Amino acid sequence: MSRRLVLGCVAAGLAMLPVLAGSRPVVEWSFLVLLYAALAQSWNLLGGFGGQVNLGHAAFFGLGALVTRRLWLGGLPLGEALLAGTAAATAMGAVVGAPSLRLRGPYFAIGTLAVAEILRITVGNILPEVSALPATTLAAYALAPRYYLALVLAGAVTAAAWWLTRSRFGCGLVAAREDEAVAESIGVSVFRHRLVAFVLGSGFAGIAGGIFAYYHPSFYPSFAFNPLWTFDPLVIAYLGGAGTVEGPWVGAVVYLALREALALRLGELHLLIFGACFIAVVVALPGGVVQALRGLGGRAARPRRAAGSQATPV
Amino acid sequence: MRIVLALAIACLVVGLPATPGVGAPGTVARLGAVVPLTGRYASGGAQVKAGYELAVEDLNARGGVLIGGRRVALQLTLLDDESDPTKTVNRLEALAGQGVVVLLGGFGSDLHAAAAAVAEKNRIPYCGVAFALHAIHEHGFRYLFSPFEKSPEIASETYRFLNATIPADRRPQRIAIFQERTDWGRELGDIWTARSRENGYQVVLRGEYTPLSRDFSDLILRAKSAGADAVFSVPTPPDGITLIRQMKELDFSPKIIMMIRAADAVSWTQALGKDGDAVLLSPGWHHDLRFPGVRELNARHQQRFGRPADVIVGPAYACVQIAARAIERAGALEPRAIRDAMAATDLETVMGRVRFRPDGTGIVPTVFVQWQAGRQELVWPKNLGAVPLLYPAPPWRAR
Questions:
Q1: Distance (Å, rounded) from C-alpha A236 to C-alpha A253?
Q2: How far apart are the first and last CA of chain B?
Q3: Is the CATH code 2.60.40.1180 the one for domain B26-149+289-363?
Q4: Residue from the list A3, A216, A228 with its beta carbon closest to the beta carbon of B89
Q5: Which residues lie across from B102 on neighbouring strands?
Q6: Which CATH superfamily is domain B151-281+368-398 in?
Q7: Which residues of A touch B182 (CB under 8 A)?
Q8: Model confidence over A93-125: pLDDT tens digits?
Q9: In chain A, which among 255-314 make CB contacts under 8 A with chain B?
Q10: Range(s) for CATH 3.40.50.2300 in chain B?
Q11: To probe the interface with A, which of B120, B210, B212 has the most A CB atoms within 10 Å?
């Protein structure tokens, strides 16, 4: 079966899922997979391909969620609210990225984490009330439009990641990851490449936040800024394979399957078992599931045009 | 790519939320509960869990519920939400898709506030206790029921209790409200303040703090310098324990210390020892209340945990009693019919007679409990078996 045929089947299956799935939990779970895959992929743009560990991703997700939710519940059409949420997250990405990307190594990670925590605490202090959808909106609640929005987003952000593996810009980003000094010496503007990837990732995280705001019946605004919205995508990206296009998808499926299966069956023990399973996976598959499977399939040594882990720096 | 696809399908099969088996509907009445068994509310969630499990066991031992002349067993599925409202919602959604006919809530107003909308969206009746936030009942939700005291009752009853229990010349006059920066913290702070003057009290400080703070010294010193002789607060258990420790370190000894929610769990006295004594709480129930079934519940709890039923066990137990009766009155395992039956509840439970107002709040007694010598003692209402209030709270040095 060719790669394109498989991808086509998967895409068609995902598109038909709300129609074909007889069970609402299946659609609900698939929605979460799409949302987490999109968020992990948006983190992957800089974290995986660019090698810069951003620990403040929750800030952009939260900002997108907060702006979209408030505008939407305030009466603005959903599309406009989503656009505003995305614009806010993108602008915030530019404002945070410009100074923080001048920091190196752990200082960049700590700096971005600090931004997200400042936002979380500030939003929690200013907006402590739960944001619940009105009873009338809940009465007409339909999951399918939320699912398709998440599907479109996951497709778009994956296309962006795929573009990175095919474009000159993506090769520059990977080159900066592999050796910053060499990349600079051959004419790659490391800062500019990283800033573009950071802003792009922030914008996608903002849309993911906006879709979350459209999906969730009730949540506290500060919870959209919870560090889990940084660490879950990060874990998913590493679990699947950071710096690969398929990694966040595989990671999201494995992560959510494991987490929900354990949570639904093991009661309070689930966190303990999940932690042990996660450590075992990380130790056994340091390059992520995708790389391990490539190894199994004998593809590891096959030369590829793609960037990512097999990229050839320019 | 084939291997990736195979792995994805395998994970999908393993991970998808379990759906009820063939023939399951009708053979059991499925109740779904999402409770914080880990995280900041774990100690309270443990009591809720015990209450639900004991009630289901007791009801099943008596034959379950009677539906259309047929005895049907109750089946409880209980999941942990890790004290995280986002996970509360996700787990409730999973349960809603599994054919449960009643949803049962966890512990803490913020978790319930997040959960109520899920029940409404899925049109499944939701019964929650350990949840005093009133604002969520103002959203017009039809599937939300809470047989538990709410902020307006707690605030009014606080002053009624103090005025009826303490002679006028010895009463505290100057109140400091240590207000949690949450919707419930602000709601109760507002009502306590609004009703203070008409009851002869003065609020000398309303200081806000962020949940899970590590340093309350500024708040405590401001209360001390304002001459506060009573402290009202609704902290989480970790915050309550930190507050008491820092009040002791700063030698701030008010005559009345009310730590609603924080002092509910047995871990309070384990963490604080004598410093936890004299602290008041309003947990909605106590094992000394003289209502039908309380003695039997205490015996069962004693057998399993070595002590009479904890304060949240009773309301949780009552929730299952209410759900079971609603299922019987509905005569079918149909959530909408059960919702209508639940709205018409008029039932004697372990927390007394329970009825619901149109907004889903329960008409139930408001109680105050005080830690005395490492035990929780009922101190209000007097007509339901209360013991004398330990007043004033002994200074820290005298403990």
A1: 9
A2: 70
A3: no
A4: A216
A5: B31
A6: Response regulator (3.40.50.2300)
A7: 128
A8: 999 999 999 988 789 999 999 999 999 999 998
A9: 256-261, 263-265, 267-268, 270-271, 289-290, 293, 296-297
A10: 26-149+289-363, 151-281+368-398
A11: B120
Residue B17 to residue A29, Cβ atoms within 8 A:
yes
- Which CA distances in Å does B373 have to B273, B281, B378? 9, 15, 13
Cα-to-chain-centroid distance, residue A304: 25
A143 in Cβ contact with A24 (< 8 Å): yes
CATH 3.40.50 fits A20-310, yes or no: no
B14 in contact with A, Cβ within 8 Å: yes
The encoded tokens of residue A135 equal 């009873």
Nearest to B181 among A128, A133, A265 (CB): A128
Q: Does B263 touch chain A (CB under 8 A)?
A: no
* Max avg pLDDT among A305-309, B86-90, B128-132, B333-337: B333-337
| A contacts of B118 (beta carbons < 8 Å) | 217-218
Strand order in the sheet with B362-363: B346-349, B352-356, B362-363
Q: Could you read off the pLDDT of A134-172 as tens digits, one per residue?
A: 888 888 889 899 999 999 999 999 999 999 999 999 999
Residues forming beta bridges with residue B175, ordered by sequence position: B203, B230
My answer on whether omega of the bond before B85 falls inside 30° of 0, hence cis, is no
Token pair in block for residue B125: 């009746």
Query: Position B302: which residue type?
Result: Q
**What ipTM describes this predicted complex?**
0.74
Domain positions in chain A are 20-310
CA distance B160 to B156: 6
Contact status of B89 with chain A (Cβ, < 8 Å): yes
Helix (H, G, I), strand (E, B) or coil at A201: helix
Q: Tell me if B37 and A121 make a contact (CB, 8 A cut-off).
A: no
pTM as predicted: 0.81
d(CA B288, CA B294): 8
